[in-house]
Amino acid sequence: MAAPSRTDISDDVLIALRRLIRAIDLHSRYLSKHFGLTGPQLIILRDWYDPVKCLRGRSPSRSA
């Protein structure tokens, strides 16, 4: 069996990236439709309401 060529590997990487981008796009549309949020907004909210930070009494404005 011959080793895969660089072109084959490049094609596989491009296909995988397209699948990943498509999954991110679908999830972004779901978030927007069901919750009115964008992906970056969700990340900020998750970081802002971190139960560990709440237990330590740290507010988002004082976190480093």
Describe this structure as you would to a colleague.
This protein has 64 residues and is mainly alpha-helical. It is built from three helices and no strands. The radius of gyration is 20 Å and the shape is elongated.
- Give the tally of β-strands: 0
Helix content: over 70%
Low-confidence stretches at least 5 residues in length (pLDDT < 50)? none
- Sketch the major β-sheet: none
**Percent of residues in beta strands:** under 5%
Radius of gyration computed on alpha carbons: 20 Å
The overall number of domains is 1
SSE-based structural type: mainly alpha
Helix tally equals 3
Beginning-to-end CA distance, first to last residue = 54 Å
Shape: elongated
Which key phrases capture this entry?
mainly alpha; 3 helices; 70% helix; 0% strand
Summarize the structure.
The protein is mainly α and 64 residues long. It has helices at residues 6-35, 39-48, 51-55. Helices cover 70% and strands 0% of the residues.
Question: Topology, please?
Answer:
Blueprint: H1 6-35, H2 39-48, H3 51-55
